[in-house]
Amino acid sequence: MKINNTPNPEALKAYTNNSVGSVNPYRDPAAGTKPPSPTSDKVDISSNVKLFQDIQKAVQESPDIRADKVKEIEAKIAQDTYKADYEAIADKLLSPNISSRI
Fold first, then answer.
1. CA angle 65-69-73, nearest 5°?
2. H/E/C letters for each residue in 13-68?
3. At the N or C end, where does the chain have fewer CB atoms within 10 A?
4. Residue-range domain boundaries for the chain
């Protein structure tokens, strides 16, 4: 929005007088010039949010690759005893629920 080309100079004056930079949220115009002392902020985190944060931290700290599973499968492949269950793989790939794909 371009305000400088407004035909009404009073509108431009009102805009500049009420701009965000000139507003003091702690000053009450009726009370005088001394602002009240600000109160301290307090944040309460629910137990569900705390649990979610703990789970998220555990996931971030866990390795991307499970070395024990990889070694087990490598050993089965080397012994020629590994047989993939293609039906289970297809079911997981086509599942609408992403958690069942893991």
1. 120
2. HHHHHCCHHHCCCCCCCCCCCCCCCCCCCCCCCCHHHHHHHHHHHHHHHCCCCCHH
3. N
4. 66-102
Flag whether pLDDT at 3 surpasses 90: no
Instruction: Tell me how far apart the terminal alpha carbons of the chain are, to the nearest angstrom.
Output: 50
Give per-residue burial for 19-37: e unless 16+ CB within 10 Å, then b. eeeeeeeeeeeeeeeeeee
- What's the sign of the alpha-carbon dihedral 67, 68, 70, 71? positive
Residue whose pair of structure tokens reads 């003091």 in the numeric block: 24
Mean pLDDT score across all residues of the chain: 76
Q: Is the pLDDT of residue 28 over 90?
A: no
